[in-house]
């Protein structure tokens, strides 16, 4: 067993884990962060995408021990959902019908947030390239691309708040 | 309840692009997938699966696994009695269909790679999986038959005891049925003085590949046995448990919680579900099994896998005179729950939107030592649509006219509806001219044809192809009488209940069980309009047999067409029950009441009562008319009289690099007539997703087996699901001719995109290459196949050989567990 400490969605945690434990297994089974899901076993689908120290990673491709000392953000910590707040990218997915069954959605949203952090005004091709590590079987990606475009527009409005009506968390 | 924004009076919910109710939990991770469920004392299962396609099990040694840390027990088939149940086939397509018994755990023989031979129960999923590796199974390999082409020869048998690989031959002949002429005569006539097109098309094997792997939890504690399963069919699953294990239905509760996609792939009673049920009962503890993706690709049912031999006869000017279909359909190792019925569903669709005077359909279902096949999005109809739409392009090329012209010459004209087809179905409504005109305009058809001519004239290495698909499908599965006439073992009605709560909210219970389609939103819209209550006040409950006690679940584009109509009827019954009570409370005569905008008013007065107020009054029951029960809740069961027939025109432009074989989608436009639309946002999503699944069949997906029966495409590394970078944005539009089979005028949209798009794409690829002498490219149209088609004047051939190279001894893979020494080539 190896002792690890990290901060997950704002909460400090320390646990003993088997060294082979994947980060996604630790999140789901150890911490009950079941919003993050497992869709494959070859790191192809991206359903388990979370942020590790602010960057998106496929949490099936990271050992829990590798996240020792890190800050992890999952879909559950992206916005203060208890208060009913949504992250602009979450809101965009709802607004643009960027999800159907919703299984890929946590990973897709986390990857899109990372994409927009790196490239706030992506072209359609850049969006498609930017989320190609995340598989969706329902939407055909059309409305996911629209959602990222929508979020990009709203984040730009928020950054340049002339006429902006809502506060948006800085990315 | 949060405050509802002020809404203008009398805004219809039907037709609004409501954002989905479901999304609030799905975008925040507040989801209940089956694998999320953890119960006190829960044990975890892992399956031991056969690496061989066909082998005798000579010994199973479980001792080392049973002794491993945290392992509770390791069991094989011999350790179970008949309470394990069996996997059922609900649709024996002929009275003499051959079907081997399908035990959830193989007894003495495995019949496909991936079949379960033993099960481990342990404290954790990891411990179970570790121990599963320690179970030692001795196999004596038997000859395996893998391909459909080999299986029909009956030389190597998938089930030697059956004496043949042939399960059933299902025939429809229009001359015999009295729905049309004799197809052999039509073909003979055309051979003398007309056109005969003969083609063989391959419908490759596909994997539904829903994003949520299947998971089952069973809790045997308490009086009822509760099962949670990632299934499309909780009601049918409960029936199957009861029918095959001896546990009464009243003791079984099946819940489909949040389910992450299905596409037909979760329309199954699985061995894993039966094993979890049995293990929970045996151990007296909650039990969970969640498959890995590899297990899912290997053992969850596959789709398609047909060889279509087609003969189309026509006059010299392109009027079709007959179509003969000889179909071999690969069942895999067992007849699945709908199994052989899937290709039979296609029998009614090969004639599509056309007025064919003679038609014959012959379907031979065949066993192989591969994963069993069953419904995948479209189920029989994509295969039929592909065949006929490819043939119509071939006919156009033969006659020398535009593919749309040959279609128009043969299709049913809008003034000819209702129209009874050569397959015996009556199409109630449609307008192929209107959908085609709209699609052409949106596409810029004439401009793209002009560009194609330029590229051809200039010998551009990148050629442009334009593909057409004018499809129709049958939706709203299904009229129970029709199902009965086809020997299907169940019905096709749907059930709904509308309950008024004391505070005036509405609970809607539906037997249709959604797994991503957006029923909660669309059904709320329907009921909100019907009862005149706010959209937000309607709660849709489904997917739990203890709440939604009756139903036939979700598949075959049936939820709205059948389930939606049941909902309308249940809501209307609420209003019928409420009316005399409203009259009593308003001290008016029933004849003087009007119901608008959720209120009863007395004509000529300002007196009125909202339905919510009435619900509260009925709850208190202080002042009801004599003899009237204190209950507004109502239910309805709707059994459709007929199918509905969505149709549409899909146009696809493909750029084909003739030097490399690479293909690139340039533009995709579709105009679908799906009748009246409840929620255009949800409809668009269904169309987009459907398109990509159909396009993926045309270009990428292929569940390839090697010669030994090992699934080469056994992970997402090898089974090529498209990504965002592989696909483009689509332009979609609609024409509307309402269906007459239900009062909402809806037709169903869940499968349309998948059914229509595959031939549109392949027609475009072939269209680009036709001047080079190419008239077919086998699916999926990989660059290699396209290149070979150009350079070798063939359809590109099989990829099986290339796939098998993974296991070539020269690659150092001879020690691979999937192969024995003697079997390596």
Give your account of this protein's structure:
The complex is a heterodimer of chains A (171) and B (825). With 171 residues, chain A is of the alpha+beta class. Chain A has helices spanning 23-30, 88-95, 105-118, 124-130, 142-159; strands at residues 2-8, 11-17, 49-52, 55-58, 71-73. Chain A has a 5-stranded mixed β-sheet, with helices on both faces. In chain A, helix 2 crosses helix 5. Mean pLDDT of chain A is 92; it is low at 163-171. Chain B has 825 residues and is of the alpha+beta class. Chain B is built from 22 helices and 28 strands. In chain B, the strands form 7 sheets. A 7-stranded mixed β-sheet of chain B has the order 3-5-1-12-9-10-11, with helices on both faces. In chain B, helix 11 (381-399) packs across helix 12, helix 16 runs parallel beside helix 17 (559-585) and helix 19 crosses helix 20. The relative contact order of chain B is 0.12. Mean pLDDT of chain B is 94; it is low at 1-8 and 799-825. Chains A and B meet through helix 2, helix 3, helix 4 and helix 5 of A and helix 1 and helix 19 of B.
């Amino acid at each position: 067993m190896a002792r690890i400490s990290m901060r997950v969605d704002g909460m400090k945690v320390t646990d003993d884990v088997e060294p082979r434990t994947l980060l996604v297994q630790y999140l789901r089974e150890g911490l009950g962060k079941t919003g993050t899901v497992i869709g494959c076993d070859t790191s192809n689908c991206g359903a388990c995408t979370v942020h590790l120290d602010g960057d998106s990673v496929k949490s099936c491709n990271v050992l829990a021990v590798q996240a020792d000392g890190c800050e992890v953000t999952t879909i559950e910590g992206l916005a203060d959902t208890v208060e009913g707040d949504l992250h602009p990218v979450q809101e965009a997915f709802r607004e643009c019908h960027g999800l159907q069954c919703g299984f890929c959605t946590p990973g897709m949203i986390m990857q899109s947030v990372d994409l927009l952090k790196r490239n706030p005004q992506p072209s359609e091709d850049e969006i498609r390239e930017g989320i190609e590590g995340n598989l969706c079987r329902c939407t055909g990606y059309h409305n996911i691309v629209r959602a990222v475009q929508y979020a990009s527009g709203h984040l730009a409005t928020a950054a340049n708040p002339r006429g902006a009506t809502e506060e948006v968390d800085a990315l | 309840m949060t405050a509802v924004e002020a809404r203008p009076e009398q805004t219809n919910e039907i037709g609004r692009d409501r954002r989905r109710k479901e999304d609030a939990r799905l975008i925040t991770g507040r989801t209940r997938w089956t694998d999320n469920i953890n119960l006190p004392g829960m044990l975890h299962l892992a399956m031991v699966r056969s690496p061989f396609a066909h082998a005798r099990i000579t010994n199973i040694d479980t001792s080392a696994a049973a002794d491993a840390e945290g392992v509770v027990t390791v069991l094989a088939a011999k350790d179970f009695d008949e309470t394990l149940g069996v996997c059922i086939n609900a649709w024996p397509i002929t009275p003499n269909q051959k079907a081997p018994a399908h035990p959830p755990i193989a007894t003495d023989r495995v019949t496909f790679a991936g079949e379960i031979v033993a099960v481990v129960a342990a404290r954790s999923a990891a411990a179970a999986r570790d121990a599963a590796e320690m179970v030692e199974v001795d196999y004596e390999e038997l000859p395996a038959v893998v391909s459909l082409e080999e299986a029909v020869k009956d030389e190597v048998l998938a089930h030697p005891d059956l004496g043949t690989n042939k399960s059933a031959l299902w025939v429809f002949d229009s001359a015999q049925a009295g729905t049309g002429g004799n197809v052999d005569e039509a073909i003979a006539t055309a051979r003398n003085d007309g056109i005969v097109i003969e083609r063989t098309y391959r419908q490759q094997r596909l994997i539904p590949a829903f994003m949520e792997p299947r998971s089952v939890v069973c809790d045997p504690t308490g009086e009822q046995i509760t099962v949670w399963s990632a299934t499309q069919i909780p009601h049918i699953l409960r029936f199957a448990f009861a029918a095959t294990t001896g546990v009464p239905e009243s003791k079984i509760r099946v819940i489909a919680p949040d389910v992450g996609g299905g596409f037909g792939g979760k329309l199954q009673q699985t061995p894993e579900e039966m094993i979890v049920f049995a293990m929970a009962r045996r151990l007296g503890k909650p039990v969970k099994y969640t498959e890995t993706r590899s297990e899912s690709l290997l053992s969850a049912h596959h789709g398609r896998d047909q060889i279509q031999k087609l003969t189309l006869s026509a006059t010299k000017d392109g009027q079709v005179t007959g179509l003969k279909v000889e179909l071999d359909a690969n069942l895999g190792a067992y007849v699945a729950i709908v199994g052989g019925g899937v290709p039979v569903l296609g029998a009614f669709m090969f004639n599509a939107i056309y007025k064919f005077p003679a038609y014959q359909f012959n379907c031979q279902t065949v066993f192989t030592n591969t994963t069993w096949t069953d419904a995948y999005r479209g189920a029989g109809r994509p295969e039929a649509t592909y065949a006929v739409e490819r043939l119509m392009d071939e006919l156009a090329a033969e006659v020398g006219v535009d593919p749309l012209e040959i279609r128009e010459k043969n299709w049913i004209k809008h003034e000819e509806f209702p129209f009874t087809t050569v397959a015996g179905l009556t199409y109630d409504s449609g307008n192929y001219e209107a959908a085609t005109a709209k699609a052409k305009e949106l596409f810029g058809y004439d401009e793209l044809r002009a560009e194609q001519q330029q590229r051809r004239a200039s010998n551009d290495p990148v050629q442009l192809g334009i593909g057409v698909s004018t499809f129709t499908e049958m939706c709203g599965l299904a009229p129970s009488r029709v199902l009965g006439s086809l020997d299907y073992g169940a019905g096709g009605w749907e059930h709904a209940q509308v309950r008024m709560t004391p505070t005036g909210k509405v609970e809607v219970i539906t037997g249709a069980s959604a797994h991503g389609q957006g029923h909660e939103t669309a059904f709320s819209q329907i009921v909100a309009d019907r009862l005149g209550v706010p959209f937000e006040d309607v709660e849709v409950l489904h997917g739990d047999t203890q709440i939604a006690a009756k139903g036939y679940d979700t598949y075959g584009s049936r939820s709205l067409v059948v389930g939606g109509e049941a909902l309308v009827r249940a809501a209307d019954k609420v209003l019928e029950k409420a009316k005399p009570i409203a009259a009593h409370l308003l001290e008016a005569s029933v004849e003087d009441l009007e119901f608008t905008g959720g209120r009863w008013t007395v004509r000529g007065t300002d007196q009125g009562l909202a339905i919510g107020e009435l619900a509260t009054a009925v709850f208190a029951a202080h002042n009801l008319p004599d003899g009237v029960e204190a209950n507004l809740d109502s239910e309805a069961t709707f059994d459709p009289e007929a199918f509905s027939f969505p149709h549409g025109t899909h146009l696809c432009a493909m750029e084909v690099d003739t030097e490399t074989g690479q293909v690139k989608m340039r533009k995709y436009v579709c105009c679908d007539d799906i009748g009246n639309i409840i929620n255009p946002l949800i409809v668009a999503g269904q169309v987009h997703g459907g398109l990509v699944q159909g396009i993926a069949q045309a270009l990428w997906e292929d569940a390839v087996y090697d010669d030994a029966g090992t699934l080469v495409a056994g992970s997402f590394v090898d089974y090529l699901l498209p990504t965002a970078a592989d696909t483009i944005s689509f332009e979609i539009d609609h024409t509307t001719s309402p269906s007459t089979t239900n009062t909402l005028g809806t037709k169903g949209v869940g499968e349309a995109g998948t059914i229509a798009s595959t031939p549109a794409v392949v027609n475009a690829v072939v269209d680009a290459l036709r001047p080079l002498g190419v008239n077919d490219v086998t699916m999926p149209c990989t660059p290699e196949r396209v290149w070979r088609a150009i350079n070798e004047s063939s359809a590109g051939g099989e990829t099986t050989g290339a796939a098998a190279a993974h296991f070539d001894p020269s690659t150092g893979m001879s020690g691979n567990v999937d192969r024995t020494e003697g079997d390596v080539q």
